[in-house]
Amino acid sequence: MPCANLAWPQTDQSMVDQPKAAPDDASSPIGAPPSVVAPDTPPADDAPYPQPPVAADQAGVVSVPLEPPFPPIVDEDDLTSVQTGRESVYGNPRVQRAQPQNRRVPALERLFIRNEINPFDPIGLKFGTMLFLPSLSQGIRATTNVDNSKQGGGATVSETRIRTRLLSDWSRHSVFLNVDAIYARSLSGTAYKEPDANVRGGFRLDLGERMQLTGQAGYHYSQEEASAPTSILGASNRPWVQEFDATLGLRNEFGRFFTDVKTKVDRLTYGQVDLPDGTVISQRDRANTYAGLILRAGYEMSRAIKPFGEIEIGRVSYDQRLDDDGYRRSGSRAALRGGMELDFGEKISGEVALGYLKQSFDDPRLATLDGISADAALKWSPQRGTDVGLGILSRFEAATAPGVSGAIYYQSRLEIRRQVRANLTLNAEVLAFLRDNTDGSGTDHGLGVEAGATYWFNRNLGVDVSARRRITDSKIRFRRTNETSVYVGLTLQR
Fold this sequence. Notes:
Porin, disordered N terminus, 18-stranded antiparallel beta barrel, 1 helix, 3-stranded antiparallel beta sheet, mainly beta
């Protein structure tokens, strides 16, 4: 190492710190300076580095090295364990992750994804935390069979429809109320008028993270179908039918299991029938009430698939113990079903069930009704802007003829809705039904197909067009019907 001779008076040799010479033996550690004895234990991390030795020559000139004899400051990982007195990774260096050569380059402009808002969707009216969505439709329908009966004639019909929805906007719990009312009357052709109203409301109370109390109640006012097996031939009017229903249920989830206990009440009443000769049939003997209990238990295979088993027991009670023909039509009802709840978010949701149902009567002269039970309520979105809905139901239909128990009625409805543009929507519907009669008349089949479109001029005004075809086939002639109609109308919404 190059050195420079710097001279100054040397007054006292003791002022120069002379290190003791280390013994020259094999006990000296490797790497220690030859003139310094290495300590038995390594120095502490914060200990000062030993000062370099300073020596004087014969002329009394002290030689000071320009550069220190100790090594430069380096990373501790580059030293061996002998040099530092601690374990080191010098012999086994850390493996560093390879850096990519094509690093991601940020965009010049930041992309903000916003929720799409359809400029033609209704805004509604806000009442505190409630949202009210009203709509009014008025249109003209031209039909070949105004009342969908065997002897029905053509007519031009005016249809007025009012729909309202009331929804809550709460962080917890929810309530709703829906009203859908239609009034149709003929403007020309066969005289005809028909009111139809449907009201339904419900609530959900979140009692905990995994416990809910739900309830619904509904009311439906309509007229009895002219081709129904219970209709009276030769009647000069179509009697009204009123249906009340209510459910109350408690759902509890624990672990991967869940239970659902629900009570159900249905009430049916019928209006009087007027005959051409002035005779009036009250039909009070047809009024009945059904009360039942539904127990469901299931297992959560995943958050999207939940199979379940369900049992239903109940009783049908008629207002009159005996009908006009002397039959006791009250009885018990039971059903056993197995199905699956589906929840794949916006892709598919709902439930489907298949099972067995049975109804017996207090009168031994009436045969027991039993058959397959099929129920479903599914929503599917195969792609954005397309919604598909499927509904299937099974129910008992009471009879009025002497010695006839009734029928099992099955119905399926498929709805398809396609949003072509923000202000243009195409829709189609297929309705099929099957009635399994026990009066020896076999089965009745029906099929209905409807297609239409809605075009919105702005958020509040739109035009509706549709075409419909319905066919009913049966072994009984008066139950065979067919109808074709077209509709054009305007819709106002808020």
